[in-house]
């Protein structure tokens, strides 16, 4: 069964396998996951003047007066900044905006809600940042096609989910142009066209993808030193590189020859779609 919910400024797609559309357990779990995402949006939206993040940014409340989820997110942002040597920041352009952690964290939590209800085989796609669980069919992995940022309609790489790889996050310029700032210069990062990180936690992969994009050429060595994460990048000139453990399927030569047998769940702002079933 499938569901698309527009929340957090994007489309969040749910693909649950092995359940009928009217399965009461699945319907309830999806409703809980969607409700959670709307609660997250109400807390963290920088476009809502009454959100906790907006109030905190204006100094109208203190961190102690924020919901505990805000404290958790700010701690994750601080850790991402420390881990990346300052290339990750929760204050891009000077304004409090932890979105680079919030979306991945929220999608990962939504996936946990489904698993807690016994829906072990599913994929949640939050505007291109993807958390998978289980498999789309017996003996088949989830496959995630990453759009090429410089060649509209083409795929740059296909990621195979598997042990230790259930999350895929991409940062790039394909949809929004150069919008990720290098905190050390205050200018947009332009060394890469996109970078995709694959690992087990979407919270971690999403934050690290943002930091890695800001690093540009230095990202490769940094990601190679991160346990449990691997990367695939397209540079501004169209060249590509990947870390040794990146879980890529065989290359796709043409968008007319799709790597999997069923259509994409959705394609989000970062140009990623979850697909299944298919073999790597």
Structure description:
The structure is a single chain. The radius of gyration is 18 Å and the shape is globular. The chain has helices at residues 24-44, 52-57, 68-83, 99-116, 202-215, 219-224, and strands at residues 2-7, 10-16, 122-126, 129-133, 143-147, 155-160, 167-172, 181-182, 187-188, 192-199, 230-235, 240-242, 272-275. Strands 1-2-3-4-7-10-11-12 form an eight-stranded antiparallel β-sheet. A three-stranded antiparallel β-sheet has the order 6-5-13, with no helix packed on it. A two-stranded antiparallel ribbon has the order 8-9. With 280 residues, the protein is an alpha+beta fold. The longest helix has 21 residues, at 24-44. Helix 1 packs antiparallel against helix 4 (99-116) and helix 4 (99-116) runs antiparallel to helix 5. The protein has one domain: T-fold. The chain is built from six helices and 13 strands.
Number of domains: 1
- The proportion of residues forming helix, as a percent range, comes to 25-40%
Biggest sheet architecture: 8 strands, antiparallel
CATH class: Alpha Beta
Quaternary status of these chains?
Answer: single chain
Order of helical and strand elements: EEHHHHEEEEEEEEHHEEE
Quote the distance from N terminus to C terminus: 24 Å
Fold-level CATH name: T-fold
- Based on CA atoms alone, the radius of gyration comes out at 18 Å
Strand tally is 13
Would you identify the CATH H-level superfamily? Answer: ApbE-like domains
Task: Tell me, rounded to a whole number, the average pLDDT.
Answer: 89
Number of helices: 6
């Amino acid at each position: 069964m499938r569901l698309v919910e527009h929340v957090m400024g994007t489309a969040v797609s749910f693909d649950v396998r092995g359940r009928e559309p009217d399965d009461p357990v699945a319907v309830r779990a999806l409703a809980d996951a969607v409700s959670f995402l709307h609660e997250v949006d109400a807390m963290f939206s920088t476009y809502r003047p009454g959100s906790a993040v907006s109030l905190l940014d204006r100094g109208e409340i203190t961190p102690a007066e924020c919901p505990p989820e805000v404290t958790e997110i700010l701690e994750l942002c601080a850790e991402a900044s420390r881990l990346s040597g300052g290339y990750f920041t929760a204050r891009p352009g000077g304004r409090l905006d932890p979105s680079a952690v919030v979306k991945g964290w929220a999608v990962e939590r939504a996936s946990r809600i489904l698993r807690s209800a016994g829906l072990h085989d599913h994929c949640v796609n939050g505007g291109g940042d993807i958390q998978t669980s289980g498999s789309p069919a017996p003996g088949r992995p989830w496959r995630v096609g990453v759009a090429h940022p410089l060649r509209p309609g083409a795929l740059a790489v296909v990621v195979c989910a598997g042990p230790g790889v259930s999350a895929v996050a991409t940062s790039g310029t394909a949809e929004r142009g150069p919008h990720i700032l290098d905190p050390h210069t205050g200018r947009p990062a332009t060394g890469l066209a996109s970078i995709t990180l694959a690992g087990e936690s979407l919270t971690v992969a999403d934050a690290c993808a943002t930091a890695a994009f800001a690093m540009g050429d230095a990202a490769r060595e940094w990601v190679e030193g991160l346990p449990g994460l691997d990367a695939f990048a397209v540079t501004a000139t169209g060249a590509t590189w990947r870390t040794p453990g990146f879980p890529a399927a065989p290359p796709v030569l043409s968008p007319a020859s799709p790597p999997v047998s069923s259509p994409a769940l959705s394609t989000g702002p970062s140009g990623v779609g979850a697909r299944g079933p298919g073999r790597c």
